[in-house]
Amino acid sequence: MKQAKAVKVLTILLALTLFVSNVSADTNSDTAWDPNTSAQVLTILARDKDAYVRRGVALNPNTPSHALTILAKDEDWYVRSGAAWNPNTPPEVLTILARDENRYVRSGAAQNPNTPAEVKKSIKY
Fold first, then answer.
1. CATH architecture observed for domain 2-122
2. Which of 17, 53, 77, 117 has fewest C-beta within 10 Å?
């Protein structure tokens, strides 16, 4: 029974991945920024090739912490700053973002309520 359920879940995730990879960038962008988008779809979109889509995922209130952890390592500061602002970002990730080379990323970490107080005090603008 458990194996059948796991296969069903994997099939659904594969179908979502294929769907998301075959739709237009505008559709992915709209989906990423939509606060009603599911955590599963946002997790898939966190790996989209378009930085604007990844930024939408980073700022989306439904984005799960494991996807935000991935986005916090993004090459684009615009995406990392979105992860820094998201209240679902784990404190240990915010601690790293507080030392980012980009001041907008550090600013987001400074404003995030999950950033530890001692880390906030050490952020350089």
1. Alpha Horseshoe (1.25)
2. 117
Measured distance CA(22)–CA(67) in Å, rounded: 21
Say whether pTM exceeds 0.70.
Answer: yes
- Under DSSP, is residue 96 helix (H, G, I), strand (E, B) or coil? helix
Going by the DSSP 8-state scheme, the letter that residue 24 receives in this structure is -
Residue 125 contacts residue 107 (beta carbons within 8 Å): yes
- Judged by DSSP in three states, 17 sits in helix
- The residue ranges of every structural domain in the chain are 2-122
Q: Three-state secondary structure along 33-88?
A: HCCCCCHHHHHHHCCCCCHHHHHHHHHCCCCCHHHHHHHCCCCCHHHHHHHHHCCC
Segment-wise mean pLDDT, segments of 10 residues, the chain, 125 residues: 65 59 65 94 95 97 98 98 98 98 98 97 89
First to last CA, the chain: 54
Using a 10 angstrom Cβ sphere, with 0-12 exposed, 13-18 middle and 19 or more buried, the burial of residue 56 is buried
